């Protein structure tokens, strides 16, 4: 009986390693099938469209996930539709994106004022920008320009928040002065404004957007958030006039920028934007791929994955790197070969990590361990889906973002003054761990070099090592 139990344990471990989602990265049908499987897994976490859901919660995910991540998910679902032509989730995606627009149609719902950041608002804006660029169906009863209207409304609320009282400019992380993190000026908030401006510039043909993209990039470079080698650091603080930086590097910061630079390279044909796109990609390749010699070209979150310190926000960050690397390659094809190399390896590894849960298809976080690491959730599912579906942009005939020249830029409303004071203080408490998108002011996190784990420790944690140790244990037992 003891031998049978031991054999069963080994079989279960091996089954986990071999039940991964089938993926041929060079086969369109295989990629679509894998993306479809993971999209279903991702949507299984969504429950806030049930009849019992409060109106303010429709389109969001339950705590501990923050409001911004729902916007990121729906942006991923817009892309899923555009890449696969699968309309299964269009209705729920449209409902979610319209449910959170807020009373002023600018993605500032009062229920979330207590933790509302410029980056949070940007993620919802980027979702509807994709809807506009790809021609996502307009909800019944809405204007044909609703997606563009929403995107421009967000831009028109963010520009007046540009703060010249410290650091020579820049957006603060949090929108409202009462919120924790209000003094923090970070890359993801300013990068969000940069990408929104770049995409609106290409879509509308209006030079005002180009000017704001240039202004944002120049400011980020001037204070050191973008280094001469295109590393992108997390942020600084207005209380010290941005004289010191948090040098933590997260995947989503350069990801946010690279799609903006690629859009401007496409639109302006200026060498400076081509150079910046290529510089960012080189930095990304060095910082966020190949954590070990036997994990070549596989994406990882360097600031937290090796230390098991990633939080719910950070579990999803790889999704945005895959998303915007692939999109950048579509509008700036010179980088396609490199992007394909890294995303193909990462997609294959991500599929191999989707062996968890009762159905053996839940996706894990660490793609480089050779199987499921036991940590799953919305962020992990989104990251795997985005990375796998991104291959559809790199093989064959990808959907190219549309553009319509000479759409008028709406005037910046003079009533939106800095700083803003929230009308209400409802919503989740701002208390995320350091480095998160919505919560306490990010402080220095362990860098990729701090407490680095050796390859030996990596092998010790490998699922194959666990199986081997199990076999040895059984033999010794007898």
UniProtKB/TrEMBL annotation:
Keywords carried by this UniProt record: Glycoprotein, Glycosidase, Hydrolase, Membrane, Signal, Transmembrane, Transmembrane helix
Annotated EC: 3.2.1.101
Bias kind Low complexity: ranges: 427-446
GO BP terms: carbohydrate catabolic process; fungal-type cell wall biogenesis
Ribonucleoprotein is among the record's keywords: no
Location in the cell: Endomembrane system
Region annotation (Disordered) ranges: 423-446
UniProt protein name: Mannan endo-1,6-alpha-mannosidase
Lineage start: Eukaryota, Fungi, Dikarya, Ascomycota, Pezizomycotina
